[in-house]
Amino acid sequence: MISCIAIDDEPLALEVLKKYVQKIYFLELKGTFTNTDEAIQFINRERPELIFLDIQMPDISGIQLAGQIQQYSPAVIFTTAYSEFAVDGFNVDAVDYLVKPIEYERFLKAVYKAKEYLEFVQTRDIANASIFVKSDYQQVKVRLSDIQLIEALDDFIKIYLPDKTLITLMTLKAIQAKLPEKEFVRVHRSYIVPLGKLEVVSRAKVKIGDKEVPIGASYSDSFFALLNGKL
Question: What angle do CA 75, 78, 80 make, to 5 degrees?
């Protein structure tokens, strides 16, 4: 699911966006805002992935607001009653712009562009991202893209990498909090797997390289829901 919000000083415009969002299965509307201060507070706290943003706002323009939130790379789709503002929108890396009154077909096209953008950003971030874990009395940098499998062993976990295995004093819950939730999923009380490394999936197990991992009954529904949404 892609979390999204809509910001517009016209309540009727927000109602249109809300109705359209509800038709799209992979969008989850987290809120609508007519007040930019409230919207900014929510954005800083919750970091929605997609923002529908009216350019002509009374206190701060949509262009200015978008410029303040680019550091975490959300997808921004501008809405405006005036097509000449579209150029300004693209100057702050907007995914698309919609001219009011917004037609559903045009809205849908913009949303799919945003979906592709977010998938690209996520892939880029995973390729470059890393975490530090303590192993053998030192902090070791681990690239997320190198993680093959994570296994729990009592109070320790094993992190399988292409050329070695790290053992660290940490719980699965603790390391899961450090990992992107849409890329690393817990399939069993003892295992976390990277979705991008899965080679074979059945109802009872998954396979990564030469390792087979069971799917726990209590994790099955959430795992397959995430998997089906990703593929």
Answer: 175
Q: Residues 149, 191: contact at Cβ < 8 Å?
A: yes
User: How far is Cα 7 from Cα 134, in angstroms, rounded to an integer?
Assistant: 43
- 188, 192, 159: which is closest to 177 by C-alpha? 192
For the chain, give percent helix, strand, coil, nearest 5: 40, 30, 30
Q: How many CA atoms lie within 13 A of 155 on its CB side?
A: 1
In 3-state terms, what secondary structure has residue 75? strand
Return the amino acid letter for 73: S
2-7 and 191-194 beta bridge pairing? unpaired
- In this model, does residue 39 exceed pLDDT 80? yes
92-132 residue pLDDT tens: 578 888 999 999 999 999 999 999 888 887 776 666 788 88
Cα 191 to Cα 2, 148, 166, 220: the distances in Å are: 25, 11, 15, 13
Q: Between helices 11-21 and 104-128, what is the axis angle to 10°?
A: 70
